[in-house]
Write a structure and sequence with these properties.
With 137 residues, this protein is mainly beta. The protein is built from no helices and 11 strands. It is 0% helix and 47% strand. Strands 1, 2, 4, 7, 8, 9 and 11 form a 7-stranded mixed sheet that branches. A 4-stranded antiparallel sheet has the order 3-10-5-6, with no helix packed on it. It starts with 9 loop residues before the first strand and ends with a strand.
């Protein structure tokens, strides 16, 4: 990683839609800079008939490290239900060691990847939207 202080120089927001044909684990974010990056939010919206458990994994140097798991609430596959929240995995509820706002973040090294593993295979017509907000140094 670069010398301190470090500033995000390039936005690195990545959007992934997991579909029934998606085989976990699925890479949903990777650093595109030689000096690494930062992740500020990992939001999940499940469009399915039932809730689904997911696990967030950091892949570093070919080794997977489990970060947290959570149950993503099901939202309608058609239409909008504002009572069902989008789940942010970068929350102390799911990752107890993570800071509270305003400095909540995962600091990633060059080559690190974030992956999502779903407990249940998505059925026809279902999807899991993963939005990762981050940046590279």
């Amino acid at each position: 990683m670069a010398a301190s202080p470090q500033f995000v120089t390039t936005p690195n927001n990545q959007f992934t839609k997991l579909l029934p044909a998606t085989v976990p684990p699925t890479t949903v974010w990777s650093s595109t800079a030689a000096s690494g990056g930062i992740v500020r939010g990992i939001c999940l919206a499940l469009h399915a008939a039932a809730d689904n458990d997911v696990m967030l994994v950091v892949l570093r140097g070919g080794t997977a490290y489990d970060m947290c798991s959570a149950t993503v609430p099901a939202r309608p596959t058609v239409g909008i239900d504002p009572t069902v929240p989008v789940l942010n995995l970068l929350d102390p509820t799911y990752i107890p060691f993570i800071d509270h706002e305003p400095s909540r973040a995962l600091y990633m090294q060059e080559g690190d990847e974030l992956q999502i593993v779903t407990a249940n295979v998505l059925a026809a017509g279902e999807s899991l939207d993963v939005t990762v907000w981050g940046g590279d140094y």
